[in-house]
């Protein structure tokens, strides 16, 4: 499983719950291609980006990286049964960005 947290000068991030996370490998300044992520990777990505509570919805719906890249705005807003505010942020700032990154990396 990959960890997607930013790291401090020491290369590790202290979480509020006392755990310490290290940053995942980054390819060319970007996350690894989400198309290769399993369900656990998707869940860990959303937990690491501050959506701990909402990450379980991706687990419950068995959303892996390929499924994540196929999701529409409507899928995120209505198909995951999460509150509207977090759902909008998840789609706009994460799902859409990951989809764009994937398309750009596969276009070259």
UniProtKB/TrEMBL annotation:
GO cellular component terms attached to this protein's record: nucleus
Entries under SUPFAM superfamilies matching the protein: SAM/Pointed domain
UniProt-listed GO biological process terms: negative regulation of DNA-templated transcription
Gene3D superfamilies from the UniProt entry: Transcription Factor, Ets-1
Annotated GO MF terms: chromatin binding; histone binding
The organism's place on the tree of life at top rank: Eukaryota
Descriptive protein name: SAM domain-containing protein
Native source organism of the sequence: Eleginops maclovinus
């Amino acid at each position: 499983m990959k960890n997607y947290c930013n790291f401090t000068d020491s290369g590790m991030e202290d979480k509020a719950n006392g755990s310490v996370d290290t940053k995942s490998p980054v390819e060319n300044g970007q996350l690894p291609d989400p198309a290769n992520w399993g369900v656990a990777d998707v869940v860990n990505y959303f937990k690491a980006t501050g959506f701990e509570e909402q990450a379980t919805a991706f687990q419950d719906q068995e959303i892996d990286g390929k499924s994540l890249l196929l999701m529409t705005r409507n899928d995120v807003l209505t198909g995951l049964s999460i509150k509207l505010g977090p759902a909008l942020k998840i789609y706009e700032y994460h799902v859409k960005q990951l989809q764009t990154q994937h398309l750009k990396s596969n276009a070259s």
